[in-house]
Amino acid sequence: MMNRRQFAGTAAAAALVLSRASSALAAAAARYDLIIKGGRVVDPSVRLNEIRDVAITGGRIAAVEANITAAAGETIDARGRLVVPGLIDIHTHTGRAATSPGLVLADGVTGWIDAGSQGADKIAETIAVAKSSPQQGRVLVNMGRAGILPDGDTMDLARADVAAARDAIAKNRDFVVGIKARLSREVAGMNDYEVLRRAQEVATPFNLPVMIHMGQTVSPLARLFPLLKKGDIVTHMFAPPPNAIVDDAGRILPEVLAARRRGVWFDVGNGQTGHMRWDIVERIMKAGFWPDSFSTDWNANSKTTGVVDFPNCMSKLFNYGMSVDQAIACGTVNPARMFPLFNDRGTLNVGAPADVALLELREGTFEFLDNYQGKITGRQRLFPAGTVLGGRRIQGA
């Protein structure tokens, strides 16, 4: 017969065994790693806009259903929020600082492109940031080998060095995904046409796109746009004259329409100076020539400018007839089609990588700025409300 001490010791051991068994059973019962519960899932890739739960396991979307009751290791209450694919920003300058990828990740941006911060001479600096980025980050090499310069990247045409750009791409093929040609008069001056021609000379052997920074060019777009090929990207599409994509009568230029027909993409590229003016936005939107993608032209001081963040930029076209679903498409599935590395992103389809942005759509009175201190007032604005990257909730996002 056991004495009291022996009985107590045996009971404690049995309780420990039962506790461990219960924990093991609970772990086994957790069918999913994470469930995002009760949000309005807006996924333009599958034309879904419904209240749904999103289940994630192994870093991938496992289920999108009306009511998922299985256990999960973690649950996010998304009631009252939009649950959308992770946002993809194809025109940023995130590669300028190692801290920047984390800042845009908090805004829901789970993939970014640095659009020409550096040219061939210092491309390694931008690539180092992309390599250390928690989310997918890639770069466009600036056609000016010294990168962005205060006195103009390619005012000296010798800086548009084809051999140097090709060498930079060949040595960094996994991270360089295109070429950036900045063509404005203060950047390229009279050299704009030749800079773009050389950019295509660089791109062709690698089958890469060229992104052009347009607006206020010396050369008319009728001369520049025929150089653009399928898959190239026109950013700053709302830039005002001289040489906007729309004429004074509100007609889209024939060369612009022809470029879209042959597969050239058109991107917002919000930016801070010279790239967006409300009257030009109105003309272009009224003409029915809507953007394929939103981008921010983000840099470290964007929070204190009219950019603010990616969801804010997405909200600016609500005043011009764009729906929430259409805006989300321009921040997810559409940019995912522009670069092969994002082919499996921009969607919440089952099996896709579990990159998710939670957004709050607020009703009220909101002020939006263009690049000329012009202000418009809107009734709705999107705000970042959480980020999931690779199936893991980002703390502080």
Structure, briefly:
This protein is of the alpha/beta class and 397 residues long. Helix content is 26%, strand content 28%.
Describe the structure.
By secondary structure, the chain is α/β, with parallel strands linked by helices. It has a domain at 86-348 and 371-380: Metal-dependent hydrolases (TIM Barrel, Alpha-Beta Barrel). 26% of the residues lie in helices and 28% in strands. The protein is built from 11 helices and 15 strands. The protein has helices spanning 4-29, 100-105, 123-132, 162-171, 192-203, 221-224, 254-261, 278-286, 310-315, 324-331, 333-336, and strands at 30-43, 48-57, 60-65, 71-77, 82-85, 87-92, 109-119, 136-142, 176-182, 210-213, 233-235, 265-266, 356-369, 375-389, 392-393. Strands 1, 2, 3, 4, 5, 13, 14 and 15 form an 8-stranded mixed sheet that branches. Helix 4 packs parallel to helix 5 (192-203). The longest helix is centred in the first third of the chain and has 26 residues, at 4-29. The model is unreliable at 4-28 (pLDDT under 50).
